[in-house]
Structure formats: structure tokens, C-alpha cells
Amino acid sequence: MNKSTEVKLLNAAVIVAALGYFVDIYDLLLFGFVRVKSLTDLGFSGQELTDHGLTLQNWQMFGMFIGGILWGVLGDKKGRVKVLYFSIALYSVANILNGFASGYIDYTIYRFFAGIGLAGELGVGITLVSEVLPKQKRGLGTMIVASVGLSGALLAWVINHYFDWRACYFIGGGLGILLLVLRVSVAESGMFNTMRMQAGVGRGKFLSLFTSWDRFTRFLRCIFIGTTTWFVVGVLVFFSPEFGRAKGLEGISAANAIAICYIGLILGDLASGFLSQYLRSRIKVMVIFLVLDLFAIMAYLSLPFEDPVFFYACHFVLGFSVGFWVIFVTIGAEQFGTNLRSTVATSVPNFARGMQVPINTAFMYLKNPAVTGSIVAAGYMVGAVCLVIAFLALWGMKETFDADLDYVEAI
Question: Which helix (H) or strand (E) holds 28?
Fold first, then answer.
């Protein structure tokens, strides 16, 4: 029997990556829950709650953009496990500092550094899990990481209901510190150790992604197939109170919409993970879920929703439709050799998240009274562009379900 097939699915690497991503998502989504009450407590009101909230979100995403490169390169140069723990430490400390914010400026700084820390956990964790598990199990392993991690959004939603916004940040930071204190022993990837011993292998060279047309197009494809996720979460769900008012609904809670969306996203990730194992394909599942996402977005923007219950239910459908996140991240890890795998797997989801900045910018411009004057029309336009880009990126993409990952890129 091949010894690699005897590796347990629930090993230390999978457990730590899943718990780390759990805290990661808690912090990433927490700001959406506490945006209004934290900014109100800091003295802002009215349109400032939307404008400053959007700016803070953009600074967080900018930090993730930078961190996606930093942690990915370090993961290929220094090892997956070290970077996994360092990223958890940074976003945990930044989370605690957010609880001490006294004004808009320091709040922005803390969100920026939190973004840098948050950028490292998922990509490095998925890289480690993909390399530790045999190919028959790696799809299930990454599914566990994503599904457990995404449930951190539900914890943030519950904590938000019982604690003030500062305590919510302290709890998130404390969870990360607790994970580090437990110090679960995680072995380094065997593929990384083997690659590190090979002479003349360029490791973590981010710029090499732009020196070869083949690598460059693979990299862009990996990023663009995930952009629609952050249109759904970062625009439709994040601004659900504003979309609700456009449909005549008052009192829509962004926190409730995010929580309901993430329940759908968790179930969608489980469904896409199992479906990928059944169909033995990542690409087919991506196509299925992108089509579902198309219909979910159209329903959200076009239906009248006279009852808030049905409006909230649509957030569940939206979340389920972008439940391909686990497949999206796994594809990024599987498309490149061991010497660039962490660089790509870490930068790809964060570049996709970073696409929220131009998405938000375009959305805010288009909904301006001088342009369309309609938040719904702006949603249609931006959503259509994101979906077209995703489908084009997926067209002709290489299937990697049965791919052997034990190789290096010639750079």
C-alpha cells in the first residue's frame, strides 16, 4: 500500500489550519458586524457611517493585498508552518489593538495591520494541507479547513449580540493567542523540505509570476475566478441595509445578513467540496456554482422583497452560490509547483479580496446621483462585469483534481 494514502485526514496540519482560519474569518467579518456601532461610538453619524466604513474596509483589504505577497513569499522561502503561526500572531495582536481604537486614524491603522496578518493564514494553511495529504484526500482536507473556518463568522455574529464592539475585538484576539499558546505541533510539509534541499531552485520569487506568459495567465485566472465572491459579500451583503431601503424595507441588519450569508457559504463549501470529490473535477464544480451565483444575484437585485424574511433568505442563497471558495483556493494551490505554491496560494485569495477595492470604487461611483442614481443599477453593472471576468478566467483552465503536486516551477 502507498504510504501516502495512510495519512489521516484529521491530522495536526488540518486542525491548526482550520482553527486558524476560524479566528481569521471571525476578525475579517467582525468589522462588518460592528461597523455602525463602533463608528457611532467614535462620534460619527449619517453618511459618515457608510463612507468611513468603506474606507476602513478598503484599508483592511489593502493590508491583505500586501500581506498576500509577504506571507506567500516567506512561506516558500522559510516554510509553511512558521508563516502560519506568525500570521496568526499578527492578526491576533492587531485584533486586540482594534479594541483600543480611540479615533478614525488609529482605527484605520489597526485595520490595515489586521489585514496584513489576516492575509497569511488561509493560503499558507491550504498549501500545507494540500502538500501533507495525498491527492485522494486533499480536496476533503481543504474543504474541512474552509468549512470550519467560515463558521468563525457565526461566532462573530453571536458575540456581537452579547458584547460591545471593543470586547468583540478583544475576544477575537484572545482566541488567536490561545491557539498559539496551545502550540499544537505541526510537521513541516515533506514536499517543502525536499524542495529546500534541491540546489538551484528559485523559491518564493513573486516577480517570476510576471516573467512568463504561462505563469502570468495561470496566476490571473486563479485570481479572477474568485472576484464575484467579494462582490457578493463586500457589496450586496455588506450594504444590505442600503439595498433593503432601495426596496422599501427598513431596519435590515447588516450583521444578520452577513451571518445568514455565511451559513449559506458554509453549506455551499461543504456541497462544492463533496461534489468535487464525486465529479473528480474542480472546474466543473466552479462552472456549476458560478451559474448558480448568476441567478442568485439576479434574484437579489430584481425581486421586490416586500417581506424582510424573504430578503434575508436571499442572503442565504447568495452565500450558498459563492460556496466555491474552498474550490477556488484549492485550485490556486494546485496550479503551481512547490517552489511557488505558497506564494500563489496566499496571494491569490488576497488579491481576489483586494479586488474589492476597485469593485467598491466602481460601485460607489455608479450609484452616485450624477451617474445612475440607483444602488440597484450600480449592483447590476458591477455584478455583470465580475461574473463575465470569472467565466472568462475559468474558460480553458487546466483541471488539477488528480494532479501530482510534487514538482517545481522552472524559474
Answer: helix 12-41
